[in-house]
Specification:
Distance between the termini: 65 Å
Keywords: Glycoprotein, Hydrolase, Protease, Serine protease, Signal
Structural class: alpha/beta
Number of strands: 40
Pfam families: fn3_6, Inhibitor_I9, Peptidase_S8
Subcellular location: Secreted
Strand content: 25-35%
Helix content: 10-25%
Family: Belongs to the peptidase S8 family.
CATH superfamily of the largest domain: Peptidase S8/S53 domain
Number of helices: 23
Shape: globular
CATH topology of the largest domain: Rossmann fold
Number of domains: 3
CATH class of the largest domain: Alpha Beta
Radius of gyration: 29 Å
CATH architecture of the largest domain: 3-Layer(aba) Sandwich
Oligomer: single chain
Main location: secreted
Length: about 850
């Protein structure tokens, strides 16, 4: 009941604020305030650094590849002092005024979220101890076969002991819409002595009426919810959104199961069995931090609170299938509360993976910006569910539908609801569309439909959620229809349909052109009275072939049209950020995953225990789960080392050996494909098995990211404000960050970049090969080198522009080891031979 009491208390405070007049003439908003004093995670690092510099001992940077996660966890005294500092500051600055503090951030950010007026926010911003004041902003949410498609059963799982131990000891934190703890994907049937809660995790399970005691176990080891910002806005609906970690949406349950759901859980939907599900790391532990909701999405203040708590609890990986609704304002995209909170999380050793966003296929459509965040785009895998309908004229039309077929070789009459109205039914022009969509059985004659195939229009009302397939299926059931067919209304242009579960024979015709052919056959088969033109007989017949059995003929992987594209969005302070985004692609289309028992995000899967969903939201947890396998094998890997292992081993070829393709248009996407570039797919398609044996690692530290931020013009005060660190030292341009990619947005004549590789395998000799981008010559030094285990080597790349280019061209650099290791990094360049003359 704790969550309910807290929500009630906040609501009462809000009413008190309104009654006091705060929101009457001068509207209050939520602001995120950060202070200059170091947060807990940074403070203890600074303290240790200070002691080591004055008390003797080794000097120099720590090897992040061997630094254990949460090696020395600080006590809570400093954090408690920060909370007292926040309260004291608010009392002093806003003495006698109304305000409401929502959160104190203390572990990875030192600050708080507060409901105040703009004038009060300005007063806070003027205080010397205040670093930054930012307005809160909104955010939104962006399997049975994918383990096989990724080669886990015969590859990564086998190498590390099988599915029974895959991911063991690793904690993945999910910032999403919550979780349904009753789902079998999250049970802990293993004996206590072989499935312990990791000692480094200190989170708790919030207990409420919706999330009772016993909801957590040795699999689901932590669960909290964060909604204070939403509550203060008066938009939180406790009946739909649940003031608890329980998932009333379905999205969070789905993503958690993709990354770490139990192995071998039967997927039964609409009474049909679609195989057995498994997460990528079925033995990893799950911690849930609910900050998004069905009714409204979420807000940055709540998300930052969730990140802060996850880091404090000791998660190893954070998975975010969420993106901002707009690009955050400020000097640069990177300086927003969420990305800066994640930077501090990375500093503590947490690997952060985020969905790229579903705003493709336009260039620079990324919703995940920063180099310390691992951004994942969506790719198709090879499994497809398809069925077809054979018409009475022997014409076959392909369709979609997780449904059985009609019996045997029999043909069944086709009937439209418009031609099956009861004699006493009154249907006007407005309601005829609704009837044609099969949403209401009441005006229809059961005798005309019973035993026949009902045909329904799929109009824009379905897209808007005003009409549903579920309601049409209920109509067909009530009228004893033998089957159902949905044809696409011509006004629904380019909308992509997904297979939908049906208990009766049925399918959806996704193509407007095929729908037109279907309707022409149906209408031409109608026999009418020559005089009155009234219908005498419906002559159209059809047979439906079932779509329950998957086939694996789809050309894959390929970049889906909706997957957001790079490069990183243009920032105000420099031409382009020389950072490749996305980092890579992973399965994101038509993914089976667990579904909340009360999940309402997809009407078609409501009440089911699994759902088939698409999006970059589904791609990100695939990578979070695979990262858990890497962390299990290499517990000392830094976040950038994990990112490098995933990136350098990614594949750029589809399963038939051709180049990975990218869909370029929303309408008829397969008709507008071309080979994918690094701005479509990053390093390529994730290769789970190879990532567990990368050979070489491109490692970056927190200090490297700070040096990059300090290179942005005018960023010094902002960096100091967020991190407590000044910009007095050397800076690093984005192109010189030690990333497993090279991106040069404007190559002016010549550019030299370097990368440092570290050997995490045995002694090996490497040969370097490369393909140059168009208009660019490339040289590498050394082109061949020996590197001992655990040692590092710097490689120098000289890029020379040979001709102008108005768009990016691409190449690739390969490092081939005599021990079989291969590290591949993409090269993206826009060359400008006479760039100096063009600048005024």
């Amino acid at each position: 009941m704790e969550g309910h009491r807290r929500a009630h208390a906040v609501a009462l405070c809000l009413l008190w604020l309104w009654a006091g007049g705060l929101c009457q003439e001068n509207a209050a908003s939520v602001y995120i305030v950060t202070l200059k004093q170091a947060p807990t995670a940074h403070y203890y690092d600074l303290l240790r650094s200070s002691k080591s510099s004055t008390g003797g001992g080794e000097s120099g940077p720590m090897n992040t590849l061997n630094k254990p996660r949460n090696a020395s966890r600080p006590d809570g005294s400093y954090g408690k002092n920060l909370i007292r500092l926040h309260d004291s500051l608010l009392r002093r600055v806003l003495k006698g005024q109304n305000y409401l503090k929502l959160y104190s951030y203390r572990y990875i950010l030192n600050g708080f979220a507060v409901l105040v007026t703009a004038q009060q926010a300005e007063k806070l911003a003027r205080r010397q101890e205040v670093a930054n004041v930012a307005a809160d902003f909104s955010v939104r949410t962006a399997t049975t076969h994918t383990p096989e498609f990724l080669g886990l059963p015969k590859g990564a799982w086998v190498k590390e002991g099988g599915a029974d131990v895959a991911g063991e000891g690793v904690v993945i934190g999910f910032i999403d819409t919550g979780i349904d703890p009753t789902h079998p994907s999250f049970s802990d049937e293993a004996p206590l002595n072989v499935f312990p809660v990791p000692l480094h995790f200190s989170g708790v399970c919030e207990v409420t009426r919706d999330f009772p005691s016993g909801s957590c176990n040795r699999k689901l080891i932590g669960a909290r919810h964060f909604a204070a910002s939403a509550i203060t806005r008066g938009i939180f609906n406790a009946t739909k959104d649940y003031a608890s970690p329980f998932d009333g949406d379905g999205h969070g349950t789905h993503t958690a199961s993709i990354a770490a759901g139990n192995h071998g859980v039967p997927v039964i939907v609409a009474g049909h069995h679609f195989g057995n599900a498994s997460g990528m790391a079925p033995r990893a532990h799950i911690a849930v931090y609910k900050a998004l909701y069905k009714s409204f999405g979420g807000f940055a203040a709540d998300v930052v609170a969730a990140i802060d708590q996850a880091a404090q609890d000791g998660v190893d990986i954070i998975s975010l299938s969420i993106t901002p609704n707009r690009r955050p304002p400020g000097i640069a995209t990177f300086f927003n509360p969420i990305d800066m909170a994640l930077l501090s999380a990375v500093k503590t050793g947490i690997f952060v993976v985020q969905a790229a966003g579903n705003t493709g296929p336009s260039p620079r459509s990324m919703s995940s910006f920063s180099p310390w965040i691992f951004t994942v785009g969506a790719a198709a895998h090879d499994r497809v569910y398809s069925n077809c309908v054979v018409l009475g004229n022997n014409h076959t039309i392909s369709g979609l539908g997780l449904a059985p077929g009609t019996d045997g070789d029999s043909m069944y009459p086709l009937v439209s609801p418009i031609h099956a109205l009861r004699d006493d039914a009154s249907v006007d022009t407005t309601s005829s569309m609704y009837v044609g969509e099969c949403q209401d059985p009441s005006p229809l004659d059961k005798d005309s439909i019973s035993g026949n195939i009902l045909i329904c229009s799929y109009s824009v009302r379905f897209v808007l959620g005003l009409s549903t397939i579920r309601r049409a299926l209920e109509t067909a059931k009530n009228l004893s229809a033998r089957g159902i067919i949905f044809y696409m209304d011509p006004f629904v242009m380019g909308f992509q349909l997904n297979p939908t579960p049906m208990k009766i024979p049925g399918l959806m015709i996704p193509s407007p052109e095929d729908s037109k052919i279907f309707l022409q056959y149906y209408n031409s088969s109608i026999v009418r009275d020559e005089a009155s033109r009234s219908v005498v007989k419906l002559g159209g017949v059809a047979r439906i072939f079932g779509g329950l059995r998957a086939n694996y003929s789809n050309l894959a992987p390929k970049v889906l049209y909706y997957s957001a594209r790079g490069p990183d969005p243009e920032d105000n302070s420099f031409h382009d950020s020389d950072i490749m985004k996305p980092n890579l692609i992973a399965p994101g289309n038509l993914i089976w995953g667990a579904w909340s028992s009360l999940g309402a995000d997809s009407m078609e899967f409501q009440g089911e225990s699994f759902a088939l969903i698409s999006g970059t939201s589904m791609a990100a947890p695939h990578v979070a789960g695979l990262a858990a396998l890497i962390k299990q094998k290499f517990p000392g890997f830094s976040p950038s080392a994990v990112a490098s292992a995933l990136s350098t081993t990614a594949s750029v070829y589809d399963k038939q050996g051709g180049p990975i393709m990218a869909q370029r248009a929303y309408t008829n996407p397969d008709a507008s494909q071309s080979p994918a570039t690094p701005f479509d797919m990053g390093s390529g398609f994730v290769n789970a098995t190879a990532a567990l044996d990368p050979g070489l690692i491109f490692d970056s530290s927190f200090d490297d990211y700070l040096s990059f931020l300090c290179a942005i013009n005018g960023s010094g005060p902002v960096v100091l404000n967020y991190t407590g660190r000044g910009c007095g030292g050397a800076t690093v341009d984005a192109g010189d960050l030690n990333l497993p990619s090279i991106t040069v947005s404007l190559l002016n004549q010549s550019r030299t970049v370097s990368r440092r590789v570290t050997n995490v395998a045995g002694d090996e000799t490497y040969a370097v090969t490369w393909s140059s981008p168009f208009g660019v010559s490339v040289s590498v030094s050394p082109s061949r080198f020996f590197i001992s285990a655990g040692r590092s080597r710097v490689l120098t790349f000289v890029l020379n522009a040979t001709m102008n280019s108005s768009s990016a061209s691409f190449g690739r650099i390969g490092l081939y080891g005599t021990g079989g290791h291969v590290a591949s990094i993409p090269l993206s360049v826009i060359s400008k031979v006479n760039f100096d003359k063009e600048v005024k």
